[in-house]
Amino acid sequence: MTQSPHAEPGQSGGFLAEIKDAVTTRAALLVLGVLALQLAFITSYVGAFHHPKPSEIPIAVAAPAQPVAVQTAKQLSALPGKPLDPRAVQDEATALRQIRNRDVDGALVIDPAGTTDKLLVASGAGASLSQAIEEVVGLVEKSQGRTVRIVDVAPSAAGDGRGLSSFYLVVGWCVGGYLCAAILAISAGARPANIHRAVIRLGALLVYSIAAGLLGAVIADPVLGALPGSIWALWGLGTLVVFAVGAITLAFQGLAGVVGIGLAILLVVVLGNPSAGGAYPYPLLPPFWKAIGPWLPPGAGTYAARSIAYFKGNDITGPLLVLSGWAVLGSAITLACAAGRRGKAGAAVGSGLPEGPDALPEREAVR
Questions:
Q1: Side-by-side strand order, sheet with 84-88
Q2: What is the enclosing helix (H) or strand (E) of 137?
Q3: Which run of H or E residues covers position 211?
Q4: At 119, is the secondary structure helix, strand, or coil?
Q5: pTM for this one?
Q6: How confident is the model at residue 161, as a pLDDT?
Q7: CA gap 151, 73 in Å, rounded
Q8: What pLDDT is stored for residue 138 in this prediction?
Q9: Most buried of 76, 174, 278, 302 (most Cβ within 10 A)?
Q10: Distance CA 358, CA 90 (A)
Q11: What's the burial of 179, exposed, middle or buried (CB within 10 Å: 0-12/13-18/19+)?
């Protein structure tokens, strides 16, 4: 403990000295970093969710006569604020196929012989999205003295309230990924001692990912009956999500030590979760969140999980490539950082030791 030069042995150098001794500069900087993360969390979630507004929702328009469909699509495209992105299709069968392929989020099927049209929606893609389509199209139809009959062609399961189970399942997988990587840092140093230890960490993460993916899929369905679809496909998706998030967390730790855990939280939680399209799918999010969501693990995972559950796995290739990209990138950076360490281990998180390459005694540097 730091003492005043005039203090008697065993006596404190005063309250200020106690503070300096108890709170290191490194600890103070980490606390400030946590505060910054907290404020970023609040800003991101409130910013993404405080004012959902439909923007260019892709919707098909079908009619017995193609000119009618084309004219209606033009009218819907001219709505103030461009809430819809309509495109004329040949017939109802084509519109239905495009919904199931996830090319569009809904379809208006016009009946020129009557005053009631049919609106096809898919609440499995998100209840808030289907409701937004119903509201916008309903107001247009009402203004023209017409009504719509709603048909849900991909309804969410009875146990999947508002179609959110996919999102929460993926969030759980993401949490497991970065916590597993963080635990490895807590137990044996934020930075692995060498490339062999990095391989071991990635191997341990893979084993964890396989178990977490399976157990998460089993809990979602059949245990809770919250999410239909192939349990094998969900297992594979869960394994990939957990490993991708864990690998990028290990990479951040290799680059920045314990600060890397905060960077992973910034990427996955602060930026990834509000832009994932969970509570509000992409067409309802502000432009920034709509743009980044599909490229981050929570967004890619949520979209893929919904495709597996309600759309027979259609349009899943893109999200799987995104997740695979994060997994490969994270693994490569982790190995590269470890190769450059030359046997110098980082201090375990919470040890109180600095993380510089020469911070540990030689006998501890090969842990």
A1: 84-88, 57-62, 106-109, 116-121, 147-152
A2: helix 127-143
A3: helix 195-218
A4: strand
A5: 0.86
A6: 87
A7: 19
A8: 96
A9: 302
A10: 70
A11: middle
